[in-house]
Structures are given as structure tokens and as C-alpha cells.
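quick q for whoever's on today - can somebody do inverse folding on this one?? i tried earlier but teh output was garbage lol. C-alpha cells:
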């Protein structure tokens, strides 16, 4: 009976995702397939979320309240650990194309000059939902530092 209880407890422990695995010289956290290399965190900006009757990016915004040097990192994906691909600064304007599920990140399209430009190709409708591949820059920024403007 004791052997059966011990075997059952051992089986339950093996199913627990928080149990550490033992490796010859010590223990290490169980790898759950989490990405540890920031270069692997990439999520392209998608435009045309609302279909061909609406602008490719539905809103605009302006970078606000970034303290210190006023520089806001632009990331390759909506995660703090994603690679920083660029920066924008207080006062820069962006097209807002999408949001992360938790609303913490905004997918943006922007120019080097910090001004909104029709040459980015997101002010007008696009035929279908697609990854942004236009001439302007794109990436993900923290929504806490973007003051949204009226929908386009």
C-alpha cells in the first residue's frame, strides 16, 4: 500500500509543470519551450485588420511622457524581451495599426521624421489583411507612452 501511494505521488510530481528536472550536477528549471533568445521574438505589424472598407491603420498617436531622454524603444514583437529595432521620441507621430491582446503594446508605422505621411500607405484601405511591407518603419511600442488620436 505504501509503495502504491509513493508511486502515485511520484507520477503526480512528474506531471507537475513546476517541478525542476535533475541533471547530474544539480537542478535546472524545466524548459517549457519558452523563447530565451530575443532575436527569436518577432511579430510583424499587420495592417488592414478591419477589411477593405477602412484605412489600413485605424488611428494615429503621438509619443508622450517618456521620461529621461524621451526615447521610446521600438521592438520587433510585443514583448519587453524582443529585440529593440529602433527608437522614437516624445512628440513623434505614428500610425496605430493593431494592439497586443493585453492592450499593453501597439503596432505602429512611422517615418524617420516623426511626421505622419501618406507615403506610408496606411491611410487608405488595403484589399486584405497583411503584414506591413511599405516604405516606412514599423514595430511595437508600449501603449503607455502613446496618446491616441481620433480614428482615421
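ok took a stab at it. sequence:
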Amino acid at each position: 500500500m505504501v509503495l502504491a501511494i509513493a508511486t502515485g505521488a511520484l507520477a503526480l510530481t512528474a506531471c507537475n509543470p513546476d517541478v525542476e528536472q535533475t541533471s547530474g550536477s544539480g537542478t535546472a528549471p524545466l524548459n517549457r519551450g519558452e523563447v530565451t533568445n530575443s532575436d527569436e521574438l518577432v511579430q510583424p505589424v499587420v495592417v488592414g485588420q478591419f477589411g477593405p472598407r477602412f484605412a489600413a491603420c485605424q488611428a494615429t498617436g503621438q509619443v508622450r511622457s517618456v521620461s529621461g531622454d524621451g526615447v521610446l524603444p521600438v521592438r520587433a514583437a510585443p514583448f519587453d524581451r524582443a529585440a529593440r529595432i529602433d527608437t522614437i521620441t516624445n512628440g513623434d507621430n505614428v500610425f496605430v495599426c493593431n494592439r497586443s491582446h493585453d492592450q499593453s503594446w501597439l503596432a505602429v508605422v512611422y517615418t524617420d521624421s516623426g511626421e505622419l505621411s501618406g507615403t506610408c500607405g496606411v491611410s487608405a484601405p488595403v484589399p486584405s489583411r497583411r503584414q506591413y511591407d511599405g516604405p516606412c518603419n514599423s514595430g511595437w511600442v508600449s501603449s503607455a507612452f502613446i496618446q491616441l488620436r481620433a480614428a482615421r
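fwiw The first strand starts at residue 21 and ends at 23. also DSSP finds one helix and eleven strands in the chain. so keep that in mind when u check it
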